[in-house]
Structures are given as structure tokens and as C-alpha cells.
Amino acid sequence: MKRVKVAMIGVGAISGIYLKNIRDMFRNIELVGVCDLVRERAEKAAAEYGVPRVYGDMHEAFADSQPEIILNLTRPYEHYDVSMAALKAGKHVYSEKPLAATLAEGLSLAAEAEKRGLLLGGAPDTFLGAGIQTCRRLIDDGYIGEPLGGAAFMICRGHETWHPDPEFYYKHGGGPMLDMGPYYLTALVNLLGRVSEVTGAAKASFAKRRITSQPKYGDVIDVDVPTWANGILQFDSGAIATIFTTFDVYYASQARLEIYGSRGTLVAPDPNTFGGPVSLLRPEDGEAREIPLLFGHRDNSRGVGLSDMAASMAGGGDFRASSNQTLHVLEIMSKILESAEAGRRLSMETPYSRRQPVAEAGL
Fold first, then answer.
1. Rounded to whole angstroms, how far apart are CA atoms 324 and 112?
2. Domains along the chain?
3. What gap in Å lies between CA 94 and CA 99, rounded to an integer?
4. Cα 198 to Cα 188: distance, rounded to the nearest angstrom
């Protein structure tokens, strides 16, 4: 099997699971180099995971003829500059979520990739896991009848109590909608299809946040983005769903994702995970029943979308986590926040079509 070569830009907190899974799980991709603004991070990752090259900067990586794909793991507000430079260097790009910090940036990236005939897409790829794929099979096979709508909730008190460097979550490109919304919205569009209109309401409940984690304990963050965002989504199919994301609430559990149909209700697992319980409530059963997971990738399989990208490059079918999806999700989030400011419903413009589901034997 030909292994597609990848260069990683950004070796922050999320990089560990990518490094591990590229080395141990996905046989069709090979990490040939890493780069970080803090060179010591890149050197440590290279030594631990057997990566042959540490680049001095991202432009050195883009100039290297070996990597075909650039894996962009930088902070959200840096996604555009890194991805655009990679595309202009002739590289395919797989980016952590969101695709970009603004819709205008996302549209520009998608146009550049199309102009150059390059693949662009990225996280989240949790929708390719056993949990959401089992839900899709149940919906597609009619177990809940006609899908009528859904509800998604991501409720927490923020990241400043545990994250070592939480400030960017409250700056441009951050906030609960852009940070966590991609998991829930990616799951919703995979289960219910394209969104046609959105209505939003949003606020920042607290002007400042105090860090209580190390190493920045006691520092105060100025909050520049909404930390409470509600959205109402109208789908092309006629289904209607709600999404609520917040960094402002003390809550016992974080995630809830439900799909409502004419014949039953489906409770999906946390869309930030690959597995998790799936339950189905139908009136003839009298109670919700847990459904066995039908697919692989039940544990943390981050990078499966990158592997799927490599497979599509080799002629292996759809690239499921493409910019067709990541751009549509970015527009949903952007329009929710824009609607909140404008005080009116907004129409969606980006196309979206659900890609083929995962086969039971794997991608």
C-alpha cells in the first residue's frame, strides 16, 4: 500500500492523539515532518514518535517535496494563513476545526483549493466513528420514521479551570460555537442534511474570566466573543433543530444530541467522541433501548478523516470530511452569530450533500 506523506504544522495539545494514531492506527498515511513555533515541542514529538524531520518554519515544510498533505493543527485564528500558504504551495490541506475563523476566510480557502485542484477539509472526523454512523444507519433505514428535527446541547463552564493556555478560547476564532459547535453541527448535517436558514441569539455573560489552571493561574482574560449562543436551524428537508453552546454554565454533564422522528426518538452519543451509547425510543417498545454499535472506530480515532482523505487521493471513494462539509458548518456557525447581531433570520448559501456512509467493515 502506498502511504501518503503528511507534514504537521502545530504541535499543541491536540497533536498527541494525531501523532499516536498516525503511527499506530492508519497504515495509508506517514508523518514525515513536524513544525511548531516552539521548536522544542516539535523536537520532542519527533523524538517520541519517530518523525524523521523537524522543520524550521511552515514555509520550509511547504517547500519540501515529500509531503502531499499539510495537517494544520494551529490555533483557530491561524488556520487561514497556514492553510492558504499551504494551498498556494500546491499541498492538500487537512485542518483542525474550524476551517477558518470567519466565513469570508473559509470561502477564500475553498475557492483557492478548487482553483488549484487540491483537496481541502478537516476536523471534526468524529462523525466517522461508530456512534454517529450507527445513528445514520438507523435514520436511513427508517427506524425513527420521517426525521422531524433535533436538539444539540454543549454546556460547560469554560476551559480556564483546566487548560494550560485557555486565552484563545475567548478571542477571535474562539467561543463555544466555533470551538465546540463543529462537533454537534457536523453530526446534525450528517444525520439530517443541508441547513437552509438559521436564527441566532448570543451574548457574553462575563466580560472577564480568571484563569485557575497552571501555569497562568491568576491571569485575567478579556472576553472578546460570545460565550452563550443559541441557534435554530431549518433544514432543506423541512426538519428543524436547535443548538445551544455555552462556556458560562455549571452543569453535571456536557453533551446532549437527540434526533426526533415521526416514529421514534434517537439519542446519539457525545459527538466529540467516536463511540458511546446510542438509544432508540419507539412507542411499541415502551422504553428507550440501547442499540449495539454497528461500525468500527469506537475509541479515540482522531485522524480517521485524514486517512479517508488519503484513501480518496488513491481512488478510494469520497473524501467525507471535505470542505463541502467544513465550509457549510462554518457558515452555519457564522450565520448564527451574525443573526444574533442582526436580529433576523438568515439564509444559507453554501451547498452541502451528505457523503456515502461508512461501510461496516471500515472506511
1. 14
2. 4-122 (3.40.50.720), 127-294+326-347 (3.30.360.10)
3. 9
4. 14
Identify the CA nearest to 94 among candidates 197, 10, 168, 166.
10
In residues, how long is the chain? 363
Q: Which residue has the higher pLDDT, 255 or 205?
A: 205
Distance (Å, whole) CA 46 – CA 158 = 31
**Could you tell me if 123 and 302 are in contact, meaning their C-beta atoms sit under 8 angstroms apart?**
yes
Q: Note whether 186 and 278 are within 8 A (CB).
A: no
Helices (H), ranges, 261-322: 304-313
- Give me 291's grid cell: 442499540
Give the Cα separation of 307 and 291 in Å (integer): 27
Which residue has 492538500 as its cell numbers? 92
Closest CA relative to residue 306, chosen from 130, 113, 98, 92: 92
Place of cell 480557502: 109
User: What are the residues whose beta carbons fall under 8 Å from the beta carbon of 60, sequence distance 6 or more?
Assistant: 35
Helix (H, G, I), strand (E, B) or coil at 87: helix
Residue 64's alpha-carbon distances to 57, 81, 90, 306, in angstroms, are: 11, 18, 11, 19
CA distances, 322 to each of 8, 70, 124, 234, 351 (Å): 18, 14, 10, 22, 12
| Cα–Cα distances in angstroms (integers) from residue 201 to residues 165, 209, 278, 333, in the given order | 28, 21, 30, 12
What is the C-alpha to C-alpha distance for residues 112 and 124, in angstroms, rounded to an integer? Answer: 21
Phi (first) and psi of residue 130, to 5 degrees: -60, -35
Contact 98, 79 (CB under 8 A): yes
Residues 256-296 pLDDT 10s: 999 999 999 999 999 999 999 999 999 999 899 999 999 99
- 136-181 pLDDT, tens digit each: 999 999 999 999 999 999 999 999 999 999 999 999 999 999 999 9
Start-to-end CA span in the chain (Å): 15
Beta pairing, strands 92-95 & 69-72:
parallel
